[in-house]
Design brief:
Blueprint lengths: L2 H12 L7 E2 L5 E2 L10 H20 L7 E7 L45 H25 L4 E9 L5 E9 L6 H14 L2 E2 L7 E2 L6 E4 L4 H18 L13 H16 L27 E3 L8 H16 L15 H13 L11
Antiparallel strand pairs: 1-2, 3-5, 3-8, 4-5, 4-9, 6-7
Helix pairs in contact: 1-8, 2-5, 3-4, 3-6
The structure holds zinc ion (3 copies).
One zinc ion binds next to loops.
Protein name: Replication initiation protein
InterPro entries: RepSA
Pfam families: RepSA
């Protein structure tokens, strides 16, 4: 994309319109509905706000007063050692490369210590199959836990270019001590083995960095759960691979390139994949599918469909245009904010080379 288009897109964003309206078969112009901030910030924002409403509803609507919220993080397994670089002010143990890294080495964060032996193909396949591992984990948790529960989950990218999951579990009624609940969830998730639905003979487990926290029964627990949701929803709008290319060092760029190549050339997107000529989005997104947020059926009564309909009604009343979804409930984005997004997109190479920063 050239600089002039970036500026035009940023203006559209500042006026809170869909950047890429599409025409339906019946000739109606509708919003693109993109989940990517870099494709259409307006639609990505609507997506994020809708999910914020749905996920918060599942916390606030928990009315019996006997619910417990569990914050669960599930990480991907290892595909080879990566450099351990601490965030500013933190220290970590010696890295596998033999050095003691500091924030100054951040260009190495998430980069393999030995790229030659790193399993890029397996990592792309994990990104593709993580949904299956999560499905198996939910079944195992339903069998293991004595109490009914509902769950909402958000997928996030780690610096090494692999997905991991942040989940919020609402346990309805609590029939065991907190510590027992934590260890039961930990053990259950650690024991899950999910066969790949696509690659014969491959199976998946979670990595060892998983984390479980119970946030309790008091009123403060709902606030903590909502704060956690706000944080995890921040990840929803982060675009694919952005984290991985946040630093533009030769090492990080080579790592992302190798991952892209593996997802494009060494990974079947489905059992019917046509190979190199296949145009499935998974080949362009390090293996990942498009859904970044999910929730169980009974998490909340609120649906995206309901929110969309409310926006249409609002748009018809206030703008006289039912084909436009309007902006009900969507906070405005300042021009400066829109420009910042596009500056980031430019600097991280999302637009390709050429042009200047707007
Ligand atoms: Zn759009
Ligand atoms: Zn290192
Ligand atoms: Zn394919």
């Amino acid at each position: 994309m050239v600089a002039a288009e970036q500026v035009a897109l940023a203006r559209v964003v500042a006026r809170r319109k869909c950047a890429r309206k599409v025409m339906t078969a019946s000739g109606e112009m509708v919003n693109c509905g993109s989940r990517s901030f870099l494709t259409c910030p307006k639609c990505a924002r609507v997506y994020r706000r809708d999910w914020q409403a749905i996920l918060s509803d599942g916390v606030r609507g928990a009315g019996s007063g006997r619910e417990v919220f569990v914050l669960l993080t599930l990480t991907a397994p290892s595909f080879g050692k990566v450099h351990r670089v601490p965030k500013a002010g933190r220290s970590v143990s010696r890295c596998a490369c033999g050095r003691q890294h500091s924030e100054r080495d951040r260009v190495l964060r998430g980069v393999p210590v030995s790229p030659g032996s790193y399993d890029y193909a397996a990592q792309a396949a994990f990104n593709r199959d993580m949904g299956q591992l999560w499905r198996f984990s939910q079944i195992a948790l339903h069998r293991a836990l004595p109490d009914r529960f509902e769950v909402a989950a958000v997928r996030e990218w780690q610096a090494r270019g692999v997905l991991h999951m942040h989940c919020l579990i609402r346990v309805e009624g609590m029939s065991m001590p907190r510590a027992s609940l934590v260890s039961l969830i930990e053990q259950t998730c650690a024991g899950v083995v999910a066969p790949s639905p696509i690659d014969e003979g491959r199976s998946w487990r979670w990595g060892r960095q998983s984390d479980v926290q119970v946030v309790g029964l008091d009123g403060g627990s709902a606030r903590k759960a909502i704060a956690y949701l706000g944080k995890i929803l921040g990840y929803v709008v982060k675009d694919l691979g952005i984290e991985a290319v946040e630093n533009r060092s030769a090492e990080a760029t080579a790592h992302v390139e190798a991952l892209h190549t593996a997802a494009r050339d060494d990974m079947a997107c489905t059992k019917e994949c046509a190979g190199r000529s296949c145009g499935h989005r998974r080949h362009r997104s390090l293996g990942a599918g498009s859904h970044s947020v999910s929730r169980s059926k009974e998490w909340s009564v609120l649906r995206r469909k309901t929110l969309k309909e409310q926006r249409r009604v609002w748009a018809k009343e206030h703008l006289g245009d039912a084909s436009c979804e309007g902006d009900r409930g969507v906070e405005s984005m300042s021009f400066a904010e829109a420009l910042a997004i596009h500056r980031e997109a430019f600097l991280t190479g999302v637009y390709g080379s050429g042009g200047s920063v707007p």
